[in-house]
């Protein structure tokens, strides 16, 4: 089968190639998914788990990408709850070959059934972005109705979902980003937008929570924006400064079938609209990984056509 692979961890994006690789093995409780659409995180080549298995053993050549939507092609021994031919979407384990391939082995518990009225391209934009936003806002941040949250990187894949989820629970949302992100963020319903390069973040006043996907200087300034007792949550790096009498949280997103189903239901009812920046074929995945052209939202790789899903 065809896949995007990389052998040398020092080669960076230039080391990514499209090549022929063996069909994956379905271990116990695994599912082999015929991938229709896949997502990736540009920085994942820097993750230790990209290069080794859970025992620390080298597993190159490795296939990047951890979000997928597709159809169950095969069940491993002992796998229950899913059937061959069923539409699914979910998150591939960090220490396994990923989703930028025609077929991928995934733990069944990391997948959720996908309704027929949700396109694979839309579903592939949900697992990391949706779960990260959900867990950051509600599991780690405890966001509640009436609170005010700043979402850094609000036009991106994670940030755009976070804006919509926060609005749904009745929070006041301030999005930040580059100047050309303004229309996207305000179009999602954010109450305000700030370009940190043009206006000091301290002008925003005290808020209840900051949700950060950027890190660096933006994260360093965030604790000062939070009222006493408030929370800074980041997925970029551990916050160095904690708000007064408050919390500073760094977390790594975890698979969760129930949360995936919650997100999918919101898509079906129109309460959530993932922002998809570009859709590229597998043949252009290396170029997409390099992000030579910047667009708001999530870049999705279309791997297979949707015809004959149950053939």
From TrEMBL:
SUPFAM superfamilies per UniProt: GroES-like, NAD(P)-binding Rossmann-fold domains
Provenance organism: Mycolicibacterium cosmeticum
One Pfam family named in its UniProt record: ADH_N
Domain annotation Enoyl reductase (ER): ranges: 11-301
Annotated GO MF terms: oxidoreductase activity
Name recorded for this polypeptide: Zinc-binding oxidoreductase
SMART domains: PKS_ER (SM00829)
Listed InterPro entries: ADH-like_N (IPR013154), ER (IPR020843), GroES-like_sf (IPR011032), NAD(P)-bd_dom_sf (IPR036291), YIM1/Zinc_Alcohol_DH_Fams (IPR050700)
């Amino acid at each position: 089968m065809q896949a995007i692979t990389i052998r040398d961890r020092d080669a960076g994006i230039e080391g990514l190639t499209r090549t022929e690789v063996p069909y994956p093995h379905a271990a116990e409780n695994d599912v082999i998914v015929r991938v229709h659409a896949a997502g990736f995180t540009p920085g994942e080549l820097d993750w230790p788990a990209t290069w080794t298995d859970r025992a620390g053993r080298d597993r190159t050549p490795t296939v990047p990408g951890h979000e997928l939507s597709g159809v169950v092609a095969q069940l491993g021994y002992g796998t229950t709850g899913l059937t061959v031919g069923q539409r699914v979407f979910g998150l591939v384990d960090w220490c396994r070959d990923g989703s930028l391939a025609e077929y991928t082995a995934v733990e069944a518990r990391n997948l959720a059934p996908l309704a027929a009225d949700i396109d694979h391209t839309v579903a592939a934009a949900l697992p990391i972005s949706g779960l990260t936003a959900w867990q950051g806002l509600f599991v780690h941040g405890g966001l509640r109705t009436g609170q005010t949250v700043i979402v850094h990187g609000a036009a991106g894949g994670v940030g755009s979902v976070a804006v919509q989820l926060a609005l749904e629970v009745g929070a006041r949302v301030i999005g930040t980003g580059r100047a050309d992100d303004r229309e996207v963020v305000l179009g999602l319903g954010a109450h305000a937008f700030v370009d940190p390069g043009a206006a000091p973040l301290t002008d925003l006043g005290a808020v209840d929570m900051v949700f950060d996907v950027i890190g660096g200087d933006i994260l360093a300034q965030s604790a000062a924006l939070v009222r006493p007792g408030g929370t800074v949550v980041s997925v970029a790096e551990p916050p160095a400064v904690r708000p007064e009498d408050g919390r500073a949280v760094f977390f790594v997103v975890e698979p969760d079938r129930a949360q995936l189903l919650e997100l999918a239901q919101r898509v079906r009812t129109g309460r959530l609209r993932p922002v998809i920046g570009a859709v590229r074929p597998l043949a252009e995945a290396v170029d997409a990984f390099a992000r030579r052209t910047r667009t708001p939202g999530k870049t999705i790789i279309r791997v297979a056509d949707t015809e004959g899903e149950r053939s």
